[in-house]
Amino acid sequence: MRKNLDDPTADIQKLVNQTIDSLRDLVPDTRTFVSDEIQDAVFDAIDAIEKDMRTLNLAIHDNPELGFKEYKAHENLTQALGKLGFTLNNPSSLPTAFVATYTHGQGGRVFGLNSEFDALPDVGHACGHNLIAVVGVAAAAGLKAALKACNIAGTIKLIGTPAEEGGGGKVILLNKGVYDDLDACGMAHPGGGYGPSPFTGSCPIDGPATLARSGFEIEFHGRGAHAGAAPWMGINALDAAVQGYAAVSMLRQQLEPTMRVHGIIQGSEKWAQNIIPSYAKVSYSTRALDVKACLDLRRKTIACFKSAAEATGCSYEISAPDQEVYADVQNNKAMALSYQAFMEKTFDDKIEMTGMTTASTDYGNVTYKCPAFAPNFAIPSPTGSGNHTAGFAESAGKPEAHRLAMKVAKGLAVIGAKFLSDDEFAKEVKKDFKRFKRGIEEGKNLS
């Protein structure tokens, strides 16, 4: 029987459905909900130290230091953390590493945060590690305040990790057991934003968020000779490097779109234009979707240089340390989705959960050790001034970049507080990590 279009019950049901939908919008997302007391404690603590964090930010930004030599940054960071009530120690052999710890109550889980603070040659903090450093400190301070104010049992560990830019500081610390007792971990990384567009970020969960990376160096040894009088007496190490460089360029034609090979020839400080070079060196990286593919690509790339050495009669030495293998970042879904929902609801910021950056980081290795997530956040920077450029280094020191970093620190701290205070959420986080690890064992992940 055809329904009477004038039946008033249809309008009533429509009104009921609309009411339910509107009420549903008022219910906090269970993945991200924390009490007002927790959120207020986090926000108030970070707002109270914002000026101190800006001073710390500039102290690092304006004094860029290369990996393993971040002595000023280390001193500034540890002094700030000591004043904030954290216990400092260094369980590693790296002089600029540190672990800042705070424990409240008995038992509870352990949530880790990370601060990077090394710079790049010539272009300084062109990857924004000054921002990563203060995000970690501010988030730790906000989380500490929440534990105290709301009597949450748990431990915070902020790990100061040297030499991300090619030194593999986190890999070294992982091997020393520094991450062994963490139940979960978080950090955040800045990227370029263009023009006056609103703040955006990303935290992909549909696969690797970054590429895996492996680095290596090869030294070529030949024999010097006068290039004019007796060039036939020489064995040209530069020729070996150049031939290998050209062979790698040919190799790129057969690489998958997600693969990268890049490097430089070094040794010019030992060269003279009228002497056959007896020494040359290449420094290279390979990148791919996972560690297995990355190492396979490294093997093919090294073969290019081995063949060049044989062709020119040079001997060679290869250095490919374990800490130069960076795994792809795998964001924990439960924490990443919670961060997305919190940032979008609280700050009206759009967080993309798909896509991948072709950059690499040693934090990828951490995401294989424990449940971890690493949201990216965009800072205003000139068109074309992405990471690792002088323009981005300048942008990383601007007040707006700092303001955005403090916003992200609040998000990290809230997710950390939820993990430490919410047993069901913690179970979901660990369940997602177990599912990810099981996928590796079953061959679904190649890393």
UniProtKB/TrEMBL annotation:
Any one Pfam family match given in the protein's UniProt record, by short name: M20_dimer
GO molecular-function term, one example from the UniProt record: dipeptidase activity
Highest rank taxon of the organism: Eukaryota
Family annotation (InterPro entries): Amidohydrolase, Bact_exopeptidase_dim_dom, Peptidase_M20, Peptidase_M20/M20A_hydrolases, Peptidase_M20_dimer, Xaa-Arg_dipeptidase
Transmembrane domains' residue ranges: none
Peptidase M20 dimerisation domain segment(s): 215-308
NCBIfam families tied to this protein: amidohydrolases
Family to which the UniProt record says this protein belongs: Belongs to the peptidase M20A family.
Classification via PANTHER family: PEPTIDASE M20 (PTHR30575), XAA-ARG DIPEPTIDASE (PTHR30575:SF0)
Protein name in UniProt: Peptidase M20 domain-containing protein 2
Record organism: Kwoniella dejecticola CBS 10117
